[in-house]
Amino acid sequence: MLEEKNVWDLVLSKIDIVDIISEHISLTKQGKNFKACCPFHGEKTPSFVVSPEKQFFKCFGCGKSGNVLKFVEYYKKITSLEALKELAKKANIEIEDHFKNWHDNSLSSEAEDLIKLNKDASVFFQYEMLVTKNTDLESFLEKRKLTKDLIKEFEIGYASSEKSFYKYAIEKDHKIFTIANSSLIAAKNERNFFNNRLIFPIKDEHGNTVAFSGRAISDSDNPKYLNSSETKLFKKHKVLFNYYHAKDEILKTNEVYLLEGQFDCIALYKIEIKNSVAVMGTSLSYDQIKFFKNCKIILFFDNDAAGIKATVKNLKIILYYAKDLNITPYFIDNELKKDADEIYNLDEGKSLKELCAKKIDLLAYLYNEFEKNNKNQSIDENERFKKNCELFEIMFYLNDQFKLTLKNRLIEKKIFASEIYRNYELNFIKPNFPSDPNFVSNLTQESKKKIAGFSRHATKLNNDFVMPDEVINNFDVFEYQIANSNRKIINSNVRSHNSKAKNSSLMFGRSLSFALIIKAILQQPNFLKNWDKSVFVRLKVDENNQSNKELICYVINIIKSNNYLNENNLIELIKNDSNLNEDKKNKFIQIIMNLKTINNEFSQEKFDTQVNNLVQNNKTYKKIIH
């Protein structure tokens, strides 16, 4: 039996591209090639070239290109498999038996029936878009700036509540079983699943329509988006909106824009960026991300809380598979709290074009995030700490040179004191995002099996994440020239401090509460007027907070003796205190050093609340990271 590759090659060997294309458009011989006006976009001067020698076509106007299969696929708007079958028939080659027995890639008869039904459904929805007279629909299309050309290009349809899809499908001789399992009618009756919604077809990588996404056209309709349920044909972790439409451009550019929704893809298409896909509310899976092997993946989400969360969630997955698939993350630094579609509508795409031209690399992204997280005084200290941990875990995937460069910049700009940076570095630059306990478990078993080398133990992932050379030109942090000798000296210094640094701990939970109290006392000693030292002495603490408790009592004793204190002279007092042993001195000094990362200013009321919380809650806080 013929192998898959041989079937395609056999058909192509029996077909001449000039003969097939000339059946549909008029070709004129010019030298050894043929020329014509492109059938895929309007033009008056021919830019569509067909090469008999290479059996290849290319339009130098719109960029469409490929072999004879691709031409038939484009021209007739059919899948690659349907194009193959059509050409095989012309060449008198019988391939049906082959595909029936082609086990790994064949579709079940149920799935094939669903493909046929979905194809008719797409026609049904597109026809309804053309004939429906609905003021809400017209208003929505105008607001979203969806022209007739865009509607045609993306095969956008409309689902009316007045027209029964079930009746249409029966008239088309589809099986009742197929209709019932298509997610196109309600589960308990024959009513439409989609009503009064704009309809986007969701296609697999072969161009088969496998599902639909319905967008409400009225603000009163909920949910805003309604997607097909999973079927025998549709598995949401295996498809991305617009991938089939964009894949040629992705292959040509080796870049893909990763967006949230359908309208974001259309917005980029309006400004001639045709290599975008949308995740539609889900996170990337291996089955999706493998489409982008050897590509730059440019993350472009909203700048609101949900968009920031989606960026980090998808970035982790990209980094997890980066080495295996040779993929590199980039980012659109979206300072506007708007999505791509909203930005386009600000000024007909001018701002969107400017934004897309300024993509940044992982190094610049991390620096920006560190700066925002640590210079914003309104962020809660626990939240600040958690975000820092997350960013340091992402740093694991930078190679050593870039880690060192980022470290120098963060310390130079006083975002971190060197000791604090070292604590984070030792505790959190680790693989597989340990502060996110669900990360690895959320990856599907199927996905894990496909990654050679760490199918069972994700920590085997290689952390030598190397960025392309042009990254250096994107970020002024590279003004630092890092010689090997300097790197060795710094690495040596870090190692020499390891024994001390390992005993130090970052502050979070109850440790942070103690630290905030110490900081407040040093700034405003009069805050103690409502509290007796015995309150702190009686506090029950775990081993991790024993030194914090003792330091508070130590500070209170000094203040009661009418001594002036601040963070700096407290360290000198501790160093010179003969009543403290060296271990106790080191622990106290480390706690005080950590206070330098805390910028909170306390009122008497806030201080009293913080102390009262410690008094009332004698439960031991769990560590965020072990």
From TrEMBL:
InterPro entries tied to this protein: DNA_primase_core_N_sf (IPR037068), DNA_primase_DnaG (IPR006295), DNA_primase_Znf_CHC2 (IPR036977), DnaG_bac (IPR030846), DNAG_N (IPR013264), DnaG_primase (IPR050219), TOPRIM_DnaG_bac (IPR034151), TOPRIM_dom (IPR006171)
Enzyme class: transferase
Catalytic activity: ssDNA + n NTP = ssDNA/pppN(pN)n-1 hybrid + (n-1) diphosphate
GO BP: any one term: DNA replication, synthesis of primer
Residue span, Toprim domain: 254-337
Cofactor: Zn(2+)
PROSITE patterns the record matches: TOPRIM
Keyword annotations of the record: DNA replication, DNA-binding, DNA-directed RNA polymerase, Magnesium, Metal-binding, Nucleotidyltransferase, Primosome, Transcription, Transferase, Zinc, Zinc-finger
Gene Ontology cellular component terms for the protein in this record: cytoplasm; DNA-directed RNA polymerase complex; primosome complex
Zinc finger CHC2-type: from-to: 38-62
Cofactor note: Binds 1 zinc ion per monomer.
Any GO molecular function: zinc ion binding
EC number: 2.7.7.101
Pfam families from the UniProt entry: DNAG_N, Toprim_2, Zn_ribbon_DnaG
Family listed: Belongs to the DnaG primase family.
Record text on subunit structure and interactions: Monomer. Interacts with DnaB.
Function: RNA polymerase that catalyzes the synthesis of short RNA molecules used as primers for DNA polymerase during DNA replication.
UniProt remark on domains: Contains an N-terminal zinc-binding domain, a central core domain that contains the primase activity, and a C-terminal DnaB-binding domain.
Protein name per the record: DNA primase
Species, as recorded: Mycoplasma phocoeninasale
